[in-house]
Amino acid sequence: MKTFAIVAALSVASAVATAHDLRVEVLNARSSNGYVAAAVYADGKGWLQDGQAVQVGRVAAADKSVLLFANLPAGHYAVSLFHDENGNGRLDKNVMGIPTERYGFSRDARGPMGPPAFADAAVDVDADTTITVHLQ
Amino acid sequence: MTMPRRDFVKTVLGGSAALAFGAHAAETTSDPVFAAFLAERARSPWTMGFAGLQADVEPMVLQVEGKLPAGLNGAFFRNGPARHQLGGMRYHHWFDGDGLVQKYQIAGGRITHRGRFVRTDKFVADSAAGRFVRAAFDTNPPGAQPVGSPDAINVANTSVVDHGGELLALWEGGSATRVDADTLETKGFKAWSDDYAGMPFSAHPKIEPDGTMWNFGVFSMRSMLSIYRIKPDGELAQAVTMAVPKIAMVHDFVVTERHLVLLLPPLVFDAERAKAGQTFLHSHVWQPELGLRVLVLAKDALDKPQWFTLPAGFVFHLGNAWEDGSTIRLDCMRAPDAWQAMSGLEQVMQGRFVDHEFARPMVVEIDLAAGRARQNALPHFAEFPRVDPRVVGRRYRALFAAERVDAGERPGYDAVMRVDPETGRHQRYRYGADVMVEEHVFVPRGPREGDGWLVGSALDLKRRQMLLSVFDAEHLADGPLAQGRMDRVMPLGLHAIFVPA
Description:
The complex is a heterodimer. Chain A has a single domain, classed as Immunoglobulin-like. Chain A is built from 2 helices and 8 strands; from the N terminus they run αββββββαββ. Chain B has one domain: Methylamine Dehydrogenase, Chain H (7 Propeller), CATH 2.130.10.10. The longest helix of chain B has 10 residues. The radius of gyration of chain B is 22 Å and the shape is globular.
């Protein structure tokens, strides 16, 4: 009984201890118009798919825009973000589907003529973590 | 001489690399292209035209001989690839280099020259890193960043156009870049519309006498061709994109009163090669069995292409075109194959000249009714064709070009010429084998076609000077009316325009 209580207490403590904050600093905006919108994906599940992000957020664009994603369980995360300069709620693209607003991914990952793989953008969040993303 | 190559390279470079963009100027190189170029420099003076620059060019007043025409006031702008090396690496092809916009201001009997690199995203990223971190037309630097869009590797190095109150530095694989005509400051990519932001916009738009500007763009990865029609005030009137099977390297086109004509050399883009890591240039494959395809688009029916075929050949540039009843007549500079594009212009970056047949002016007729195209060569070797801007798309009797007469064992041109495409009547001024002639442009003076000045720059290899010459365009053989000289060497450039004051 006593042993059980200790284990239970430990697991509560560890649940608290393994929730971390991910702070994302976004640089290289073309202007301070509109918003920087970001989505956080966990463990490669539903990477870049609608409704699959574990958290989303947006913040007014600035020279350095900062987004804070709180209480993420320890794990592997990747961030996709873009600068919604005209505030229309989407990443604008030209007739060939190439983004015409700036975007970026954690670890500044890039794919050839498309988004990077989750693994190339993923960061370990096992403590409060700050990352920097340069809009491209 | 037992000095190891690396030390030799360091010695040769000495102070020349000191003013480089980025903190890490080239001091040594293990790059074989760079090493080859350095090894050839001493014995091949022409290589000075391909050494390149690492910094912007401060204003300098030219020494003028002769008298500049009183009516000739304005700015002669030239664009061209000018930074060829960075961080110990040299680009593999002449067309890789970052664009430098040069301006020769002609005012009050004086000529002042200056130049400024276009601050493209690639230029800024490479400069910050002190080495090439993004791919170029024919160079994939080791460890280069993935390319997310054409503009990530846009070097804005091919031509300039003045239209709708803006000066634009043009590449061909991505956006036009806005440049301040006074200061040459870079003002960012030009977006014609939301849909066409970041789309390829060729370096050879054609401006009709009424001010309408037409252009095209080739999106090789998707085998697509875009056509743009832009109003005289610079506003986009129309843009369409169509699939073109076996899209080719297309650098230039022509317009008539009713049609657009594109020549597709059989240098066909293969996306699989690009995905496998080939350079953009060498993702193209020579397929002479296709012939040289002629694509004719009616301006009022862009969705109904007409196709014709000419014998296989390679074309960079066209001069002009016009409607002669149901026949379109045009001229182009045609080489028998793509050797210059694929190999010759790589060799020059290594300081090597290999003689191979140069392009000839070719007069082409496209009989729309009979569905037939024919061509006739004129007996010259020439490039950089230009016409009087008042006859774009109309009948014309004066075609100007840089001509290769007796240039010897070096690349490029040694003369300027004027030819009547209908009679073949020809005149020229020969600068001489020691002068490398760049594109010359026609500037109107009197009311008749061809009544005007021919203005252009050249590199004097013996005196290590740049020349800016002004000819009476009706009397080229008389030599320049006036010629400015300055004691510095500029990288040989591509296309120029004259913007009257």
